[in-house]
Specification:
Elements lengths: L5 E2 L5 H8 L4 E3 L2 H9 L6 E2 H4 L5 E3 L6 H12 L2 E4 L5 H4 L2 E2 L13 E4 L2 H16 L2 E11 L15 E2 L6 H9 L5 E8 L5 E9 L6 H9 L4 E4 L8 H10 L10 E4 L4 E3 L2 E8 L6 H11 L6 H12 L4
Parallel strand pairs: 1-2, 2-3, 4-5, 5-7, 6-7, 8-10, 12-13
Antiparallel strand pairs: 8-11, 9-10, 11-15, 13-15, 14-15
Helix pairs in contact: 6-7, 10-11
Amino acid sequence: MQLVGVTKTKPTYEASIAIKEGMPLYTIDDKQLVAFEEQGLKVAGVLSDLLTKVDLVVDCTPNGVGEENKKLYEEAGVKAVFQGGEEHELAGLSFNAFSSYDQAQGRQWSRVVSCNTTGLIRTLYPLDRVFKIDESFAAIIRRGADPAESKGSALNAVEPSLHVPTHHGLDVKTVLPWLNISTMAVKVPTTNMHVHCIHAKLRKKGVKTSDVLSLWDQMPRIRFVSGKHGIRTSGQIMEIARDLGRHSGDFAETVVWEDGTHVAGDSLYYYQAVHQESDVIPENIDCIRSMMELEKDASRSIRKTDKSLGISK
């Protein structure tokens, strides 16, 4: 793959960094081009110029903008990967590398589901495949804002989502339509990660906690932490990412508390953490590889992506 260019709508510090990193920078139209030039930022052209040079676009625009952009991509004859803020119907396929890699082969449009949905699918999909899930529930403790944002959840408040069940479970079903799942969510005044509290009722009899942990241990993009080792908070997980020298402090894997996982009868309870800024990045890369038919086998694509990002087990 070759990164042909990136686009920005405003001459912000990200645009300046992109240029310093050697990324060809484009803006949306000629009017915005002037604003970039006034700030001393040299751009390679506008979006219509970029679309003549690419095979595929990863559309990371705000919710709803992708629907408008799709018309531009159709006219230019390029493929596009949309993100979880868009509706499933926009692309007709919601993507997770574990479960829908084959379905994305050669497609023109795909949608990588949101960070929370990606995190849920990574742990629930193998559970359902091996032990079968009769029903599941996830309480999602959402970060109030991303680290760079100065707006978001109130500084001293917890904000429940009053639309129950929340969209997260419905979004999981766009990838795993047979899965019986419901979700609730609250926003809290933190910026580093989401945390999920999950209950799953397993159909297979006699499943032990060790069986669940062994299954997840075999899966890519799932990492264990332990309170016994002093890792009790999402902030400590992000400190691990920094200590490991992860680019931008990213932690693209879904993080499961090993000692917070417990099977009682047919009920499985566990906690997991999701880094909202990075967990969909490997999924986007695999989605590109499938849509462009660069690799037929999902497991080989996942291994290649994880090795390139430094997240291989």
